[in-house]
Structure formats: structure tokens, C-alpha cells
Design brief:
By secondary structure, the chain is an alpha/beta fold. The protein has 10 helices and 17 strands. It starts with 19 loop residues before the first helix and ends in a 10-residue tail after the last strand. The structure holds nicotinamide-adenine-dinucleotide (NAD).
Length: about 400
């Protein structure tokens, strides 16, 4: 992803609904939709992805960024200067004791989200977490119970189900445009991040970093997964990264995951850090169909990546020539999730993104690891409300 180019527009909420349950959970922060208040927000983790989040958060009418935190304090200070944020802290303890805030946005290394999200919820903060929310389904479900008990909300990236292209595809499937849906395939890969070791350390890997987008899109389109079979490998055993130099790769950098959605529908996701890609981390120039859905009477291909989709090509028995639809992003950008969550807290407008789906996707990842380690098919326990509309 290109974190250097902030895009400032905001998702059009026309297809979202005002849910009384959300208003109740968000408690005193909810006001009438015509007089939104700014949600006092603290951001932890001021590395690469903060370059994409902070321009959106600091421009949102629903957000007041009051503090930044990073264990590399110079990073928090640099971003505070750049984005005019008054307070910086060198760790979560100092941040929680510092200037008050209501909403914690977690952009740290993947491995520490669990620990930081727990601290945030315990302290009574609403939490937006980059992926994953936790390291296991059990802990993630514990977080949901804790959040309910505290009257706070919890969300996690990615937000691919918020895009108008996802909505178009979901509508076609619900309307039966593809006939009897049989199969789907999705892929996301590049040559791997070069800046931080955590992507390659235990609990890192291409699945929680890249395949997570495709898992979110495909479960959103085809429904929760019943069982998973996977093969995983490490193609490049050693790498050089900016923060730690030469490192050993401890988690998969090549993943092939088969998912059974029930009713005969089978999908496949592949991800990796060894994929030659002429466009690198840049999404806008990717024009292949990275998601393909095939049924008895039609075919649908998502143009570009699901996190930065460019359109949907559709062919059906009635109209067999591929026709392109939904080329307008309508304000959707992948890095707006935390700003949308703040809007939800301020106005009560619900997101299509749910923590239940994020935890289901997490369970797909842990099940894929178990399947690869044991050579067996692994049944899943979790589910989420579907269809996502
Ligand atoms: N970089 C991207 O383009 C991108 C895009 C989408 C999602 N993400 C996700 O965002 C997260 C962060 O990725 P990144 O690329 O920004 O990594 P990064 O290494 O550039 O930044 C992570 C930052 O978190 C800080 N940090 C680590 N542990 C901390 C702690 N305990 N307390 C406070 N700060 C701590 C680090 O010092 C670092 O500055 C990951 O979950 C990643 O998957 C990244």
C-alpha cells in the first residue's frame, strides 16, 4: 500500500443504518446526527501506516486527535509536529495516564495489538485496531465480552466490505445474477515490506498482513467459512529489513488457503511476500481481477485490489461479454476505518465492518496454520451476521 499519498474524502454513509443498539453501546458519546461532536482520539503506533491514517483522522469532523504514542518517541514527536497534535507519549501507560481521550486507534506491530487492545478496553476506551484485533479467536471473543461490559466499542481493519465495489458484488450475488455460485479465487502479494521485522516474525506472515483483505472480502461475499485446508511455506528464509538488519523469517511468506463456505461453495485465497509485482505496494495501477467469483450463470471479477478497488467486471449468460461496473470509489479509501468508527461513535451511524467478522477472519488464519502444521482439514467455530449489506 502506498502510505505516502493521503486521500481525504470520506465514505458516503447512504447505505448504513442508524442502529439503536449501537447508540446504546456508545453511551454518552452519541448525539443527534445533525450536531456531531469530535471524539477525543489517541493514536498508538506512529510508523508507516500512521502516514495514511493521520491525514484522514486529523481532517475528520468527528475526530480530535489529542495524543500520539510510540515506543520510538521521536516518531510520535515527528508526527505530532506534522499533524499539529499537542501531546506525545513513549508508552501505553503514560498515554493512558496523560491527557484524557475516549477512542484508541492502534497502529503498532501486529504482535502487540492484543496487549494494547486489552489495555485500551480495560481503561474504558473505544478501540479501532489494525489487523489483527487479537492473536487468537478466544482472546478476541473475551475482548468483545469485556467491551460490552464496559459499554465501549471495538472494531478492526480491514474495511473492504465498506467499498461500493464490494456492495455491487454482494448485490449481484444476493440477486442470483451468477446463478448457482460455485467457486471464488483471490490473491494479494508483493515482494514483502522492507521496513520492519515484525512482518516476518512469529504471528506475522503474509496471511495476517495481506490475505486478511481477501478473507474479509470473500467471507463478506460468500458467507462464513465452515472449514479450512491450507498449505503454507517459507520461500525466503532470511531477509534484510530496516529496523533489525538481517533476520530469519519465522512465519509463512507463501500461503494457499482453501475455504468451504457450505452449500457446496468453495473459495481459495493465496498471498505471499515473494510475488513479483511491477506496481510494488501501489494499488492504483493493479488492474487484474484479484477476486474472481464464478457461478453456473455468470462470472464476476474485481478490478484491482479489494482495498483499493477500481471496478467490477461482470459477464452473465444473458450478457456474456464482460461489462465494467462501479468504477467510482464514492469516497471509499482503505485507511478511513478509524475515522468511520469515530463517526459511528459521534452520530450512531453503523459500519458494515464488524468485530465478529474480523474475529472469524482471524480464526481462518489460525485454522490455516493448524491445517498446514497437521496436514488436516480444520473446522471453524465462529461466525458473523451475513449477508453483509
Ligand atoms: N504500512 C502499511 O502500508 C500498512 C497498511 C495497512 C495496514 N498496516 C498495518 O498497520 C500496522 C502497523 O504497520 P506499519 O507498516 O505502520 O509498521 P511500522 O513498523 O512502520 O510501525 C509500527 C510502529 O508501532 C510502534 N510500536 C511497536 N510496539 C509498540 C508499543 N508497544 N507501543 C507503542 N508503539 C509501538 C513501532 O515503534 C513503530 O513505530 C500493522 O498491523 C500492519 O499490518 C500497515
Amino acid at each position: 500500500m502506498n502510505t505516502a499519498a493521503p486521500v481525504l474524502s470520506r465514505r458516503d454513509f447512504t447505505k448504513t443504518t442508524l442502529l439503536a443498539g449501537a447508540a446504546a453501546a456508545a453511551g454518552p458519546l452519541v448525539q443527534a446526527a445533525d450536531s456531531p461532536r469530535r471524539i477525543r482520539t489517541g493514536v498508538i503506533g506512529c510508523g508507516s501506516v500512521s502516514n495514511a491514517y493521520l491525514p484522514v483522522l486529523t481532517k475528520s469532523p468527528f475526530v480530535e486527535v489529542v495524543s500520539l504514542c510510540d515506543i520510538k518517541p521521536e516518531r510520535a514527536k515527528r508526527q505530532a509536529e506534522r499533524f499539529k497534535v499537542a501531546n506525545t507519549y513513549p508508552n501505553i501507560d503514560a498515554m493512558l495516564k496523560g491527557v484524557p481521550f475516549d477512542f484508541l486507534v492502534v497502529l503498532t506491530d501486529m504482535q502487540v495489538h492484543e496487549e494494547i487492545n486489552r489495555r485500551g478496553i480495560q481503561a474504558g476506551k473505544h478501540v479501532w485496531s489494525e489487523k489483527p484485533i487479537a492473536n487468537t479467536l478466544a482472546v478476541g471473543q473475551e475482548f468483545l465480552r469485556m467491551a460490552r461490559a464496559k459499554g465501549v466499542r471495538l472494531w478492526g481493519a480491514p474495511i473492504t466490505v465498506q467499498s461500493p465495489q464490494f456492495a455491487f458484488m454482494a448485490r449481484q450475488l444476493q440477486a442470483g445474477a451468477l446463478g448457482r455460485v460455485a467457486a471464488a479465487h483471490a490473491f494479494y502479494g508483493h515482494e514483502g515490506p522492507s521496513w520492519s521485522a515484525f512482518f516476518y516474525e512469529k504471528l506475522g506472515g503474509s496471511m495476517p498482513d495481506l490475505a486478511v483483505y481477501n478473507f474479509t472480502s470473500l467471507t463478506g461475499l460468500l458467507g462464513p467459512v465452515k472449514r479450512v485446508t491450507a498449505m503454507l511455506s517459507i520461500v525466503t528464509p532470511e531477509r534484510t529489513v530496516d529496523d533489525k538488519g538481517r533476520i530469519k523469517v519465522a512465519e509463512e511468506d507463501n500461503a494457499m488457503v482453501l475455504m468451504d463456505h457450505g452449500n457446496g461453495v468453495i473459495s481459495h485465497v493465496q498471498s505471499g511476500f515473494n510475488y513479483f509485482n511491477p506496481h510494488g505496494h501501489e494499488g492504483r495501477n493493479e488492474t487484474r481481477h484479484t477476486i474472481q467469483v464464478i457461478g453456473s450463470k455468470g462470472y464476476m471479477g474485481l478490478v484491482g485490489y479489494d482495498w483499493e478497488p477500481l471496478g467490477v467486471d461482470l459477464a452473465t449468460m444473458d450478457q456474456p461479454a464482460l461489462k465494467r461496473h462501479q468504477t467510482d470509489a464514492q469516497g471509499y479509501i482503505w485507511q478511513q476505518g478509524a475515522a468511520l468508527a469515530a463517526e459511528c461513535l459521534a452520530t450512531g451511524k453503523e459500519l458494515l465492518v464488524t468485530p465478529e467478522q474480523a474475529l472469524h477472519v482471524l480464526e481462518i488464519i489460525t485454522a490455516a496454520r493448524e491445517s498446514a502444521a497437521t496436514g488436516r482439514r480444520v473446522d471453524l467455530q465462529s461466525t458473523f451476521k451475513w449477508p453483509v449489506v
